[in-house]
Amino acid sequence: APACLANGKSFNVGQTACLTIAGESHLARCDMVLNNTSWTRIKDECPGDAPKPHPTSISTPTPGPTPTEPTEN
């Protein structure tokens, strides 16, 4: 069966893959176009991809002691 190639792996027609081209990642689906397999871009980002890291998005513990208050249930 014809397949698309990406990242050193083969994907069957109808499967989706995250393609990284020139440093840009996007979600693509393996389709048949004129009897040839071709990647069709679906979304501009890949599901589960972390967004480009921002210095503010890194979760670091706040400096100093954190007040621990007793919780009453």
Produce the secondary structure layout:
Layout: E1 3-6, E2 9-12, E3 16-21, E4 24-33, E5 36-43
Antiparallel strand pairs: 1-2, 3-4, 4-5
Q: Would you kindly provide a written description of the structure presented here, covering whatever features stand out?
A:
It is a single chain. It is elongated, with a radius of gyration of 21 Å. The chain contains no helices and five strands. The mean pLDDT is 80. The chain has strands at 3-6, 9-12, 16-21, 24-33, 36-43. The chain is mainly beta and 73 residues long. The protein has a domain at 3-49. 0% of the residues lie in helices and 44% in strands.
Q: Can you list the strand order of the major beta sheet?
A: 3-4-5
Distance between the termini: 61 Å
Fraction in beta strands: 35-45%
Q: How many individual β-strands?
A: 5
What would the principal axes of the Cα set say about the shape?
A: elongated
Low-confidence stretches: none
Topology order in helix (H) and strand (E) letters: EEEEE
Largest sheet: 3 strands, antiparallel
Mean of pLDDT: 80
- Work out the helicity level: under 10%
Radius of gyration: 21 Å
- Counted by DSSP, the helix tally is 0
Structural category:
mainly beta
